[in-house]
Write a structure and sequence with these properties.
The chain is α/β, with parallel strands linked by helices. The chain folds into five domains: about 5-110, Orthogonal Bundle (Arc Repressor Mutant, subunit A), CATH 1.10.10; about 125-305, Tex N-terminal region-like (Orthogonal Bundle); about 325-445, YqgF/RNase H-like domain (Nucleotidyltransferase, domain 5, 2-Layer Sandwich); about 485-615, DNA polymerase, domain 1; about 640-710, Beta Barrel (OB fold (Dihydrolipoamide Acetyltransferase, E2P)). Helix content is about 45%, strand content about 10%. α1 (about 5-20) crosses α2 and α13 crosses α14.
C-alpha cells in the first residue's frame, strides 16, 4: 500500500471524524485501491475492515475522495503563489493547515488574481498610502491634499477619501478572522425571508405559503428550503438569507474601532466597513450560507430518495409464476400480455372491458380463455388511467380463488417501453405491449425489472430535480448496486441490465456474459464465467459471490458463499464424513461443527458465521414474501370519498413532511407527519415505508385542488 504522508493524514482525519480505528480506514482504502467494490468489501472482507457495513465503507470512500480534492486545490493554490513569488513560510503553513475548502479559500483570498475592482482602480490612482494612514487610526488629522491629482483622476478630497475607503473595504473583506466571525454570525443568526414577486403572484399559486415567510436559517427544514429556492428559480419568490444588518455592522465596529471616538479616521473606517459588508462580505457570506444550507437540504432529500428506492427495489416478488398483465385504458382499451414463469412473452392482444356491454362480454371471454390456455397464476393490472375499472372487470369474472389479482404501480413503464433496452428485448412489438410486459414483470420480480429504469423516473423522490444531480446519481447508483448484490442474481436468466449492477461487472461485461450465454448455453458452474471475454480474475473475485446458479451440480454455486471459501466447506464436510450437500440438508451435522477449528490468518469467525448461516438457507432471498392486496371495491374516484372513511392503501412515497398513499382513486392522499402515529415522531420513516400496506382514515377531500388529507391515527 502507498503510505504517503497525505494518505496517512487522511486516514487519521477520517478515523477521528467517524470514530473508527485508523486500521479500519486504512484497510478500506487499500481494498478500494485494489479494485474492491463497496458490496464486496462489506460482504467478503469483514475481518479486514473490522465488520464495517456498506454505509460506513461508502462514507469512508466519499470522505477520502473529498480530502483528495481538497489537497488537489491546495496544490493548485501553492503553485499559483509560487509562480507569482508570493509564497512565504507563514502563508505556506496556513495553506497546508487549512482543514477545509472554506478556510483554504479564505487564506488564499487576499492573494488571488483579481479582476479590475474599485480597490484596484484606487490603488492605480495612488491612494493606498492614504488608506494605510486611515487604517492605522493613529488620530492624525487627515491630509488628503497630496492625493488630489486631476491627472490621476482624483478631483478633490472627497474622491480621495472614497478611493481610500474602497481599498479599506477590500482589506476588511479579505481578513480571514473577520470572515470567520461573520460566518459564525450568519450560521447562528441568519433569517430566511421570502417574499413574492408581485408581478408573478398569480402564476406562483403553488408557492403561496412562502409569499410572506420568514424563519431562522438554522432551523429551516430541507424540503421548505428547496421549495423556496425553486420558487426563486422560477422568479416567483425573492429570498434573503442574512442576519440583521445592525448585528453585522456592530461586529465590524467592535473589530475596527480602536480609539472609541468619532475621529476622522474612525468615521472613514466605519463608512468603509459598512460598504465592505453591503457590497462584498454580505453577498459573499450569504452565497456561502445558501450553498451550505442547499447542500444540507440536498443530503436530506437524497437520503429520502435512497430510503424509498431501497424499499421499492426490495419489494416482495411474486416469484416464478405465470402472469397475465394488463395496461388499462378507456379509449384505446387494455393491452393484455401473457408471460411465462420467467417473464418471457407468450401472447399479446387488446381487450375493451370499459366500452360497450358487448365489448365487455367479449373481453371476459378472451381473458378466461387465455387464463386457461397459459395456466395463468396471477393477474397484474397497471394502476394508471382506467386501472380501478379494469380491476373491477377482472374480479367480476370469478376466475377462481387460485388466481391472484393485484394492482401494480406502473410509474416509468412508458419510459421503459420507449427505451433502447425495450426495443432490443421486443423489436417486433410496439410500445403498448412492452409497457404491459414491464407491468407483469414488476409483479414477478420488482428488482429485476426496475433496474432497467433510471431511478429518477420511478417517482419516489423529494424535490429530486432541485438537488445536486451528480450527488443524487452517485447515491442512487450505490443503492441499486447494494440491493442487487444483497439479493443476488441468477446467472443463467438475468438480463444484462441486472448483471451490470453486480459487483465488479458493469455494462460491458454484463453484455459479454449474456452474449456468451446465448452462444454457449447456460453456465454449469460459476468458474465458467472466467471464459467470458474480458472477464478476468479481479472481476471474478468481485462478482462470483453475488451470482447464483440454481440447480448446479455444486450446491454452493446457488448460494452466497464465495468460491474462494469452497475449500473450507469441503474440509468441514470431509471432517464430518459427509458431502457438501449433506451439510446443507442436515442441521444436526452442521450443529456438530466447531467453526473455531477453521479460523485462519485471513478467515475469521465473522466469515465462518456467514458461511454457516448460508449453509442453513443457501441462496435465500432476503426480501419479504409476497402479500396480496386490493383496494376498497366501492371507492374508485375522489367523488366517492367521504370524511371519516377507513380505507386500505399502499404507501407510494415517504418524505420528511409525511407519506403519500394510493387508496385507488387515481390521486394519492397525504398523511402529514402529525397524522402518522399517536405518539410523537421525528421522521415519517419511523412508521411507514414505500410499498407498505396500511389502513387510513379520510380527514379532508379538496376536489378543486385535488388534495386528500389522510390519517393513520386512531379515530
Amino acid at each position: 500500500m502507498n503510505t504517503t504522508p497525505n494518505m496517512s493524514r487522511h486516514q487519521d482525519i477520517v478515523s477521528k471524524e467517524m470514530q473508527l480505528k485508523t486500521g479500519q480506514v486504512a484497510a478500506v482504502e487499500t481494498l478500494l485501491e485494489d479494485g474492491g467494490t463497496v458490496p464486496f468489501i462489506a460482504r467478503y472482507r469483514k475481518e479486514a475492515t473490522g465488520l464495517l457495513d456498506e454505509i460506513q465503507i461508502a462514507a469512508i470512500r466519499d470522505r477520502l475522495l473529498q480530502l483528495a480534492e481538497l489537497d488537489k486545490r491546495r496544490k493548485t493554490i501553492l503553485n499559483s503563489l509560487t509562480e507569482r513569488d508570493l509564497l512565504h513560510p507563514a502563508l505556506h503553513k496556513a495553506v497546508l493547515a487549512a482543514p477545509n475548502l472554506t478556510i483554504l479559500e479564505d487564506v488564499y483570498l487576499p492573494h488571488r488574481l483579481k479582476r479590475r475592482t474599485r480597490s484596484l482602480i484606487a490603488r492605480e490612482k495612488g491612494l493606498e498610502p492614504l488608506a494605510q494612514a486611515i487604517f492605522q487610526q493613529d488620530n492624525r488629522s487627515l491630509d488628503t491634499g497630496s492625493f488630489v491629482s486631476r491627472d490621476k483622476g482624483v478631483a478633490n478630497s472627497d474622491e480621495a477619501l472614497a478611493g481610500a475607503r474602497d481599498i479599506i473595504a477590500e482589506w476588511i473583506s479579505e481578513d480571514s478572522a473577520v470572515r470567520a466571525g461573520l460566518r459564525r454570525l450568519f450560521v447562528s443568526n441568519a433569517i430566511i425571508i421570502s417574499k413574492v414577486v408581485k408581478k408573478n403572484q398569480e402564476a406562483g399559486a403553488k408557492f403561496r405559503d412562502y409569499f410572506e415567510w420568514q424563519e431562522p436559517a438554522a432551523k429551516v427544514a430541507g424540503h421548505r428550503l428547496l421549495a423556496m429556492l425553486r420558487g426563486e428559480n422560477e422568479k416567483i419568490l425573492k429570498l434573503s438569507i442574512r442576519p440583521s444588518e445592525e448585528a453585522a455592522l456592530e461586529f465590524l465596529g467592535r473589530k475596527y474601532s480602536k480609539d472609541g471616538g468619532a475621529t476622522a479616521t474612525t468615521t472613514q473606517i466605519t463608512l468603509a466597513a459598512a460598504d465592505s459588508y453591503k457590497r462584498l462580505l454580505g453577498p459573499s457570506l450569504e452565497n456561502e450560507l445558501r450553498a451550505e444550507l442547499k447542500e444540507q437540504a440536498d443530503r436530506e432529500a437524497i437520503q429520502v430518495f435512497v430510503d424509498n428506492l431501497r424499499e421499492l427495489l426490495l419489494a416482495s416478488p411474486l416469484g416464478h409464476k405465470r402472469v397475465m398483465a394488463l395496461d388499462p385504458g378507456f379509449r384505446t382499451g387494455a393491452k393484455l400480455v401473457c408471460l411465462d414463469e420467467h417473464g418471457q412473452l407468450l401472447h399479446s392482444t387488446t381487450i375493451y372491458p370499459t366500452h360497450s356491454e358487448g365489448k365487455n362480454h367479449e373481453a371476459g371471454q378472451i381473458t378466461r380463455k387465455l387464463c386457461l390456455k397459459y395456466k395463468i397464476e396471477a393477474i397484474a393490472i397497471g394502476n394508471g388511467t382506467a386501472g380501478r375499472e379494469t380491476e373491477s372487470f377482472v374480479r367480476n369474472l370469478n376466475l377462481g380463488e387460485g388466481i391472484i389479482i393485484t394492482m401494480v404501480d406502473e410509474s416509468g413503464a412508458s419510459i421503459y417501453s420507449a427505451s433502447e433496452t425495450a426495443r432490443m428485448e421486443f423489436p417486433d412489438y410496439d410500445l403498448t405491449v412492452r409497457g404491459s410486459v414491464s407491468i407483469g414483470r414488476r409483479l414477478q420480480d420488482p428488482l429485476a425489472e426496475l433496474v432497467k429504469l433510471d431511478p429518477k423516473v420511478i417517482g419516489v423522490g423529494q424535490y429530486q430535480h432541485d438537488v445536486n444531480q451528480g450527488a443524487l446519481k452517485k447515491s442512487l447508483d450505490d443503492t441499486v448496486a447494494s440491493c442487487v448484490n444483497n439479493v443476488g442474481v441468477e446467472l443463467n436468466s438475468a438480463s444484462a441490465e441486472l448483471l451490470a449492477h453486480v459487483s465488479g461487472l458493469g455494462p460491458v461485461l454484463a453484455k459479454n456474459i449474456v452474449q456468451y450465454r446465448n452462444d454457449n448455453g447456460p453456465f454449469a458452474t460459476r468458474k465458467l464465467v472466467l471464459k467470458v471475454p474480458r472477464l478476468g480474475k479481479k472481476a471474478f473475485e468481485q462478482c462470483a459471490g453475488f451470482l447464483r446458479i440454481g440447480g448446479a451440480n455444486n450446491p454452493l454455486d446457488a448460494s452466497a458463499v464465495h468460491p474462494e471459501r469452497y475449500g473450507i466447506i469441503e474440509q468441514m464436510a470431509k471432517d464430518c464424513n459427509s458431502g457438501v450437500a449433506d451439510l446443507i440438508e442436515d442441521s444436526e451435522i452442521r450443529a456438530a461443527i466447531d467453526i473455531k477449528r477453521y479460523v485462519t490468518d485471513d478467515v475469521g469467525l465473522p466469515t465462518l458465521n456467514d458461511i454457516m448461516a448460508e449453509l442453513a438457507k443457501p441462496g435465500r432471498d432476503p426480501r419479504e414474501k409476497f402479500s396480496e392486496f386490493s383496494f376498497c371495491e366501492d371507492i374508485n374516484s375522489m367523488d366517492d370519498l367521504e370524511q371519516g372513511m377507513k380505507l386500505p392503501g399502499i404507501i407510494t412515497n415517504v418524505t420528511k413532511f409525511g407519506a403519500f398513499v394510493d387508496i385507488g382513486v387515481h390521486q394519492d392522499g397525504l398523511i402529514h407527519i402529525s397524522q402518522l402515529a399517536d405518539r410523537f415522531i421525528k421522521e415519517p420513516s419511523e412508521v411507514v415505508k414505500v410499498r407498505q400496506q396500511v389502513m387510513v382514515r379520510v380527514l379532508e377531500v379538496d376536489l378543486q385542488r385535488k388534495r386528500i388529507a389522510l390519517s393513520m391515527k386512531e379515530g
